[in-house]
Amino acid sequence: MKTSSKQKKNNKSGPLPDIIDKDHWELVVPGGPFSEFPGAVVLVVRDGTVSCANDQAELLCKFIRRGGSEEYLEALKSAFSGKAAQVNPLLIRAERDERSRVLAAFDLALLPWDGGQAALLLGRNITLERNLRAALIESRQRYRDLLEASCDFAWETNAKGYFSFVTPDGGLGYTAAEISGMQADGLLVDVHTLVTNPFSCKAPCDEEEVWVKDSYGDERCLLITSMPLWSDQEIWHGNRGFCRDITDQRKVEMQRAEEIHRERVYNRILEIARSEMVPVKMLGSAASCLIPALPVDAVMISHFDGEIWHAVAEQGSALPLDAIARVQAALKMGETVYQESGPDGVLVAVSTKFRGQANGAICLWRRGANVVWSAGEGELLERIQVQIGISLQQYGHHRDLQTLSSTDPLTGLLNRRRFEHLLSGFLEDHNGDGHTHLLLYLDMDNFKYVNDAYGHQEGDKALRDFAEVLKQETRRHDWLARLGGDEFAIFLPNVPEEEASSKARAILMALEPALAREEDPEWRLGASIGGYLFTARDGTNISDLFLHADEAMYRVKRSGKNGIYVVKEQLEGAGS
What we know:
Elements: H1 5-10, E1 40-45, E2 50-53, H2 58-65, H3 70-80, E3 85-93, E4 102-113, E5 118-125, H4 127-150, E6 153-158, E7 163-166, H5 176-179, E8 205-213, E9 219-230, E10 236-245, H6 247-275, H7 279-293, E11 298-304, E12 309-316, H8 321-332, E13 337-342, E14 345-354, E15 357-367, H9 375-406, H10 416-429, E16 436-445, H11 447-454, H12 456-472, E17 479-484, E18 487-492, H13 497-515, E19 526-535, H14 542-558, E20 564-568, E21 574-575
């Protein structure tokens, strides 16, 4: 039967067809075989036009009138030839352009109808389902993209602290298979330093900074966010979280912080150099500054005058003497940097220069196994050594001036002013310590004869020879002075009473052969030595000490010269 023009136009059910045309009944009229079908029902005749359709097929009919698509036309051809076909999904777009917006989607079945004279199209509108699926896929992809952008890997741990899940790409150089089942705490550099362990905490943890070791053994810094997992019975059974590797960021920050720190250290040393006028104090302050700044366990700054090394400033632990000797030997040979490592630490020394000439060294000791010096620390030392070299040069000049002002230019011994200053300080520092100390007053015998018979040059030589004997016969910490003319003094701290006379006699016995001349029987140089043994106490003054020692010396002079006399506390002693 034919469908009315109104029915064709509206694609809606019409009145029941004439019974004699029952083979062509409209399929969608009330009571028809597909009137209750929940989707789109369309009958398409051989010329491709819609014979009838229900309300749900409105978009599908527009699609057919527009000419359909290649996939649809192939399926329709199959239906006309007696074979069922499907188009899943059939996409209906706003325009024929394949890139245009999708208006609807159908799962479409095409069935042969009326002996191939028509095709029955049954369509299930899957637009919402497809949109939901697409939205889900998109949200999953968005979540995955966000997860990948925000972290390097996600994970789960079980109640025993083992990884039970890791994202497919794995992490820290491990594959997902390698890291799954691994003890989470085994990755931590030091679990004891953590305030919160994000792999096993029972409270949410937001961006906890944790240092771990990767598959190569290198330390990596992770920013970890995690949350605990609880069962319905409120039993904790692990944690879930994700990690972001911020090692490079932290290294850049640490490098920048170290650069700022080194600049502050350098500026601090410059400030010390400018504000401290006394070179030895400046060098001491610089050494103190380097201990926490680098940091190191020991610092020694030494001055080199071309022959002798002299430690000017020492801070921290005492450096081994054999190590110092190796450093000095290497730098003396022209090396600018010396380094030696051992199981206990590493020693580094750099030479200092002034106008191209080596004038000292900075020696640094860092304790610990496998410790290293960074390139930045090396750069800081290079900058510091220039300033230290200038300060050491100033120290050398200052020391030379002190030497000139405090020593006797002929013999190199202390002069009277310096000797008395040192002795005065000693009395203050050792007041009441109970130890006995010996002051010797020496006067050369027959010195006038040498000057008169041989001249002042020979007399000066005799004075220098006299001084050399005194140096050889005294201890390193004893003080020797030329008081003037042929008068000398020696201060020997911490001398027991029973040793006082023997020490004075040993000096006298060494002087006799050193000053003798066989070719001149008149040449009888010797020494009258007076000694005073005392303890430092309140009221002790230098004038009294010299007075008692001088009286003891003159007692020797009066008794025939070339002898010793040692007294203790107001001339209560023994002589010879």
